[in-house]
Design a protein that fits this description.
heterodimer; A: 164 residues; mainly alpha; 4 helices; 0% strand; rod-shaped; B: 208 residues; alpha+beta; Immunoglobulin-like; 5-stranded mixed beta sheet; 1 helix; 46% strand
Chain lengths: 164, 208
Amino acid sequence: MSVLKFSFVLLVFLGLASQLSVSIVLAQTSEAEAASALATSENAVFSAYQAVLKAEEAGANISSLLVPLNEAGWFLNHAQIAFKSGDFDSALEYATQCQEELNGFATDADVLKENAIYEHYMDFFVNVAGPIVEAVSVVCVSLIIWFFLKREYGHAGSVVDESS
Amino acid sequence: MVMLEVLLMSLHEYRVLLMAITGILVLLIASPALSRLLVFPRTEYFTELWVLDLNHKAENYPFNVTRNHSYNVFLGIGNHLGHCAYNLIEVKFRNQTQSAPNSLNRTYSSVPALYNITAFVEDEGTWELPLGFSFEYYYSEMFSCVKLSNLTLNGVNLDLNNYAIKWDSGKKVFLGNLFFELWIYNSTLGSFQYHERSVGLWFNMTTF
């Protein structure tokens, strides 16, 4: 009887111990996962910001990029707060949402950058190079007209001199 | 001879006319290019940080606060740095004896941040956030001071358990200072740097 009791108690103890160890392992995994997701999200936000700076440098209008970037920043912020308070599940959730918000962001930024570079070249040809060439052409035409007029009037003057 | 004089005069007039027409045409045609070349370069780069009341004015800020009562203000940033800025606003709380940001020494407060707000603001752009906050605190007769327990900021509970405010006998108030420090991400260094901008609100933590 006592052997049975002892076996029962032992079984219960082992059962509880195994559950406890499983929950500890799960908690540790969750923290590690949250930390990893948080680091990934931070890098994603910094990379996205660099992409925005490059697009802006190329002359792109970056307003459309700032909406998802601010959203991602908000999620990252809350992931950091949750992580600090030990709420790893929320931290992981916010960090994942942050990464989802930035899905395809680099491509959008690149498209804006390429468009801006193309528009910049077009703008240069239409509004800088074109007008300068046109202005030089006008000066050349004026000089030609001037020399033509001078020659004609000089010729007319000599004709008048001869006749007088 | 008279005819030659008339012709020479006309030639001179033609020259003036031709030069005037050419000059006007050149200016008109080259104006798009000139508008890009003749631009004064920007020399001042700075950031604005502000707190405004509910009417977007710097007038009716909350001062006498009561526990668990909600107050609203607007927190804003204006970016004139010449590029898109990654801003971090550290929300801090202090009493009269704790470290404050110093605009002369350009140093930030050593008080730990309770909450961070991030904002990406484009060049020449502004950003604004409505802030709703309330304090949870009680008066400790034993220590004759106000002990804070919680600050709720935009629905987020922030722990203020280690914060206490002593009685200011001169002003006859319990003064607490909620303030915001602006940090900007330096992409070269890869870290946030204090941008020497801070704004804050003083509160009388009423105990009745």
